[in-house]
Structures are given as structure tokens and as C-alpha cells.
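It would be a great kindness if you could assist me with a short task in structural biology. The matter concerns a single protein, recorded as an amino acid sequence and a row of C-alpha cells. The record follows directly beneath this note:
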Amino acid sequence: MDRRTPSIRCAQYLRMSREHQKYSPANQSAAIAKYAQENGFEVVRTYQDDGRSGLTLQGRKGLQRLLGDVLSGRSDFTHVLVLDVSRWGRFQDPDQGAHYEFLCREAGVAIHYCEEVFSNDGTSAASIMKTLKRLMAAEFSRELGQKVWAGQAAGVRRGQKQGGKCPFGLRRLLIDDAGHPIRLLQRGQRKSVQTDRVVLIHGPDSEVAAVRDVFRLFTRDKLPFKAIAARLNERGMLCEDGGPLTTLRVGAILRNEIYTGVYTWNRTSQRLRTGVRPNPAAMWFANAMFPAIISRRTFNAAQARLADVGRRTYTDEELLNVLRAVHDKYGGVTLPLLRRLKRPSATLFYRRWACLADALEAAGCGRPSRQRRRVDPEAKYPAAQLADRPKALLEREGYLSTKLIDADPTLPTSTKVRDRFGSLCAAYNAAGWDVSLLTVRQLATARRWRRNTSVSLLASAIQQETSHVDGTPSQG
């Protein structure tokens, strides 16, 4: 038997978006191993993306690491083996997939598609076939998206729920294809049979009564969100996740039309991993799903009061008039003075203009005589050094938070950390804690209400759970 070690070192890239079992990482790896053995390759590195769509590079950390290693010169291989063109990506612009391949080729690393009928040898025939395959992969995603949307629309017409969280006061009921009830779905549970469907029904009587009380206290008694939440929490009202009613949840209840018994779908669209965009009302699907908890008249009254007490929207000229009035009254404008006045918020001036000095100049008040010297954030807070101390906090506490950062004398404030990295989640990731904003909020709620005494165990459990969740919303 020939025991010679293959002389050509290579890496393999695996990706699965869960649309076909034949694309499982094990099947891909087996096919790549066969190709490597037949062509004298030795697989020395594996880059893998599980449950990730091939429409964009975003979220595909395996491919990002592959490109980073190749372009930085850290790679110890000269070839990359991929099952086929669609595993490299289903980019809607075929030039995007070609661009990433070109970057690897320019760095001296060739890409091989193991189960394609052509050899990726740079010939004209191979280039034509590869371009066609990229177009076919992109078209598959477009057609699949249209079929899924049509199926969801048909489900809404039959009164079925299409993914998303269950609102307070309601429960998800699993039904079969004939509409017969099967069982209630608890929080976090999903359907297991493809033909099953989900509808919404009334939850416990205490929660249904709490929903009616929220609308009554807001529309009739004119109470603010905080007072409504406090009054219901005094009665021991808890949400399905075990947490209390907060002001955010009270606001979500008051704005949700579902309590009138009407389920509305397709308010927004996010096709093919593009940005979320609102749809016109003519494209919405609305269907009665269960008996109304509150009347349409009560809901409209709540929306009218929400519009009255909501945050005011200022035009640029109105903000400039505020600056002129403050300048005339106090002889100058400073950030602490604007914060004491509270309305409008001082943050608004920074959102509309680069700084307060620019806003004052636009208002005709002149620029302040003294301006703070602007310091390069990289020179003052190098990102590499700024991530070391949070890493030590993470090892000691098992989690990171604004409270921990602000309490550490060796770190700048959490606001400066957020500004330096763009977001606190990005700072956490730089420190070695791979979490999302949702996970951070779940951990904060768990610590606040002491639902789990071991925060470190809860953090690892949630992180392990979220690492296996696909970005596609469930049908339940």
C-alpha cells in the first residue's frame, strides 16, 4: 500500500443553509475527501459555515476567516476545495462570487469545485460554465424566495401565523393540515412536521384581562406606560418568559393590532437578504384569526393618544430656532445647558449636525471661541489594547455589560467603548465573546430578575443555543 503523504496542501470550505440534506457538512466533506485523494491533495484546514445563507458574505465567518488568512498571507495551503459553485455562494450579483475567487487567485491560492463537470483551469470554456453556474445558483434563491412567499401568503389567507414571537396574552396552537388542534407550543418550541401549521388563540384569562386593563388605563385613565406597568406588576403579572411587564412591553401591547383579532402580514419586506423596507397598505394581508380581545374603537383611541403623547419630531429650522432662543436668553449655548432644558434632546443636534459648533454656526450664533482639540481615537484608545481589559473581565465574570465596563478604572466609559468599536456587541466580540444584541438583552434580563443564579452557565447555554439557530424565521 502506498503510504506516501500527498504533496499538495489544501483547505476545504463547507457551507450548509439547511435547504437540502445532501448539502450536509458530512456529505460535503466526504465528497471533497474523495476528490482530494484522486488528485493528490492533502486537506490541512477546514473553514465551515453551518446554517448560513450564501446570498451575502455577512454572517459567514468561515468564509471571512478563509479570505482573511489568504489575503494576509497566513495560509499554509495553496488550494481550496469546495463542493460546487453554489456552496461558494448564491450571490445575486455573480461578479461578487467571482471577485472573492479572484482575490484568492491573486494571492496564489486556487479554488477547485469538486463536483462540477468542468475544471476550474482558467480556460474560456471553464469561465463560461462557471458564470452560468453562478447565475443558476442566484436564480435558485430568487425562485425559492418567491415560492416561500407565495406559500406564506396562502397560509395567511387561511388564518395561519407566519413566524415571529407570540404577543403577550396570546398562545400558539399547533394544528394539522386539516385544521385539527394538536397541542400548544411553549416558548421556544417549534413545529416538527412540515405539514403542521400554527394559529394564535387567547392565552390565560389573567393575561387577557391584563391586556384589556392596559388599554383601559391608557385610554380612559390617561396613565403613562410606567404607571401601567407598575400597577399590573403589583398584581404579580408575569409574561410568558417569566419576566415582568415593562414600559417597552406596555408600549408594544398598545401598538399591536393583533388584539383586535386581525392578523396582518407583509407590512415589510426583506427579500434576498436586502434591507427591510415598508410595503404600501395595498400589499398587506389581513385576516381574522381569533375573537377580538379589545374592540376596534378602543384600539383606535389608543393610537390617537399615542400620537398625542409620542415623541415630537423637530425640523431643522425648529432646532435652529431653539438654539437662537437659548443663545438670546442665556448669552451662549453649552451642552450641559441643553441637557438641563431636556426638550429637545441635546442628542438631536449631534444627529443633525456634526457637532454643536456646526449647529450654532448654522443658527447664526457664531462658532464658540474655544473648541476642544479633536483627538484621533486610535491614538488615544487603540482597539487592540482596548479589547484586552474586557477580555480579562469576561474570563472573571463570565459576561460583559456596561456596568462592568463603567466600574473598571482601567477602562474608559462604556460610551467611549461603544464609539470606538461602533457598538457594544462589536466590543464584546473583539474581547472574545461572540454574542448578538438579543443574547445580551436575554442575559441582562436573567441577571435583573435572578432567574438563574449562575450567569456564566446561562451565558454559555444561550450562546450555544444561538450558535445553532438559522437566520431564517421559523414558520411557528
About this structure: The longest strand covers residues 41-50. The domain at 8-142 is CATH 3.40.50.1390 (Rossmann fold). The chain has 21 helices and eleven strands. The chain has four domains: 8-142, 170-309, 316-362, 377-466.
